[in-house]
Design a protein that fits this description.
The protein is mainly alpha-helical. The chain has one domain. Helix content is 77%, strand content 0%. Helix 1 packs parallel to helix 11, helix 5 runs parallel beside helix 12 and helix 6 packs antiparallel against helix 12. The two termini are 27 Å apart. 54% of the residues are buried.
Length: 291
């Protein structure tokens, strides 16, 4: 029964990371119409982390130890701060669908970073890495990122940071259960607020209803639900499987971006989407079990 329940939880967690996270790119775009990017990301993760932390403590979860706080802070820096914070910053100039497409390379970076801890990259994974990187080159040469070298490099940096933090998290001392998500979001949110302050960002004088709605969506569904689901997957399955949401996220981002924001997706970007997803499929379907 436990195995069946675990299987159901894995399916539900994958569903959350597939479809909710696929929509967060558009929510970020709507949010930064009023909020500065780092301030928005910082408020999002700080509030979500604080809520989840208080709930877990109320139900008797122990306070993380010093070592666990250090581990959670490290992951919070790489995932919410460097990973998501960079995406929020870049989306000031890049569409939500293109941002999601670039982040789709996460499993490729995970395969590379896993080799640090002894994972031997198979020939099939090398092929997938090559194909995925070719898709990124195509996106930069003929897509919306053409001539936007800084944006392209920042999106690659965001994907690599998220991937490294995801792989490293399995080797770090973490709190049990949802307290891990709470402490990571809280730490990452605080770091983002510090960056926001250093950047001179200020609270907006006027905030549209669309931006408030986006913030609510990002806090509740994007963070409390989907981020916690992703952390559960990292603890339960291989990081590469946990990141399989990168198959669906760009497709969802394309659909909601076109439908709700009238974003224009070029033929080259559709081709790049197909190439990148082929590369991701090759990496995820490799038979070697990750260490």
């Amino acid at each position: 029964m436990k195995i069946k329940n675990q299987g159901l939880l894995i399916v539900l967690a994958l569903f959350c990371t597939y479809f909710i996270w696929g929509s967060t790119y558009l929510a970020i775009r709507f949010g930064i119409e009023s909020f500065p990017p780092f301030l928005m990301a910082g408020v999002r993760f700080t509030i979500a982390g604080a809520i989840l932390y208080c709930v877990m403590r109320f139900f008797g979860a122990p306070n993380p130890t010093r070592q666990q706080w250090l581990g959670a802070t490290a992951v919070g820096i790489f995932l919410p701060a460097l990973g998501n914070g960079t995406v929020c910053y870049v989306q000031q100039t890049v569409s939500s669908s293109v941002a999601a497409l670039s982040i789709a390379t996460a499993p490729i970076w995970m395969a590379i970073f896993s080799s640090i801890w002894g994972h031997k990259i198979t020939s099939k994974e090398w092929l997938g890495i090559a194909v995925g990187l070719a898709g990124i080159v195509l996106l930069n040469v003929g897509g919306s990122l053409h001539g936007e070298l800084a944006s392209a490099m920042l999106l690659i940096f965001a994907a690599a940071s998220w991937s490294f933090g995801s792989v490293w998290s399995k080797r770090l001392d973490m709190p049990d259960g949802l307290m891990a998500s709470a402490s990571q979001m809280l730490a990452g949110g605080v770091v983002l607020l510090m960056v926001s302050s250093l950047q001179g960002e200020t609270w907006p004088q006027t905030i549209s209803q669309k931006s408030w709605g986006a913030m609510l969506f990002l806090v509740v569904l994007g963070s409390l639900v989907a981020y916690s689901a992703y952390q559960y997957l990292l603890k339960t399955v291989r990081p590469l499987v946990a990141s399989s949401n990168t198959f669906v996220n760009p497709v969802v981002a394309f659909i909601v971006g076109i439908w709700f924001a009238n974003e224009h997706v070029t033929t080259t970007e559709f081709i790049a989407l197909g190439v990148i997803l082929i590369g991701v499929f090759l990496v995820l379907s490799a038979s070697n079990k990750e260490i």
